[in-house]
Amino acid sequence: MSSWKTMMTKIYITGDVHNTIDIKKFNMKNFPEQKNLTKNDYVIILGDFGFPWHNPENKEDKYWLNWFDNKNFTTLVIDGNHENFNALNSYPIINFKGAKCHKLRNSIYHIMRGEIININNINFLCMGGAISIDRFYRKENISWWKEEEPTYKEWEKAFMNLNKADIILTHDGPFDVIKQIKSIEKNSVNTIFNRLLEFNINAKKWYFAHHHINKTIKYKDVAFTILYNDIIKI
Q: Closest by alpha carbon to 40, among 72, 5, 3?
C-alpha cells in the first residue's frame, strides 16, 4: 500500500495567474512542494492563465511558457475571461488524458470547454469562460475577446458530460453559490452554472476561481473551493 501511495500522481489546483501579475505563487518560496514533483504530476490553473497574450507569441510569452514547461510538473489550464482566444486557438489540438486540449508546450495543455480529463481515475469536467466586468474599458481582439463567453455547443458538451464528472473545474461559478460570499450580479455564465449545479448528480467537489478570494463553502451537498493565490493538493 505504501508503494502505491508513493507512485500516485499528485494533483494541485490554483486560481488566476493573469500573465505575470500573479506568477510569483509558483516560485519555490510560495510553492516548495514542487521540489518533489515530476512531469507525471499536475498543477491545474483555473483560468486567466494569460499566456500567450500575443498572436503569434512575443518574446515575453515564449520566456514564460518555456519557464512553465521547465517546471517539475505538467501544467493544465482551463481558460478564463482574460485570455487571448485567437492565440489559444492557433495551437494544435490533441487528445490528452481523454480530453481535447491545445498543446502550448510539451508539458502545458489548455483543456477545451466541456471536456472530461481523467487523472488518477478521476473524471474532471472542465469548463472555462466568464464575463469580464471591465470589458467596456478594453479593446476587442487586443485586450478583450468575445470568446470569453461559452458558446451553445460548448455548454451542450458540458451538460452531456456532466454525469461522468467526479469533480467539476470551472473559471467562474454558480451565481447562487457566489452570492453566499459576495455581492454580485447575475450574468449569462454564472446563471448557466446554476443550471449545471441543478443537474449535477455525481460530483461532490467543485473548484473555481475568477473572484480573487480563497474560500471553501458547502452548498447543496457540494463542497465548493474558490481559489486565487492558494495552491492546494487534491
A: 72
Nearby residues of 153 by Cβ (< 8 Å), 6 or more positions away: none
In the predicted model, is pLDDT for residue 73 greater than 70? yes
- 99 bridge partner residues: 96
Contact between residue 129 and residue 150 where contact means Cβ atoms under 8 Å apart: yes
Give the tens place of pLDDT for each residue, 12-44.
999 999 999 999 999 999 999 999 999 999 999
Give the DSSP H or E segment for 161.
helix 152-161
Q: 188-199 and 152-161 helices cross at what angle (nearest 10)?
A: 20
Cβ contact 85:128 at 8 Å: no
AA identity, residue 194: N
* CA–CA separation, 134 and 13 (whole Å): 26
**Is the bond leading into 52 cis (omega within 30 degrees of zero)?**
yes
Cell numbers given for 163: 454525469
pLDDT tens profile 98-115: 999 999 999 999 999 999
DSSP E strands in the chain: the ranges are: 11-14, 42-46, 74-78, 93-96, 99-105, 108-111, 115-119, 122-127, 167-170, 205-208, 215-219, 222-226, 231-233
Are the C-beta atoms of 113 and 100 separated by less than 8 Å? Answer: no
Question: Residue 4 — very low, low, confident or very high, per pLDDT cuts 50/70/90?
Answer: very low
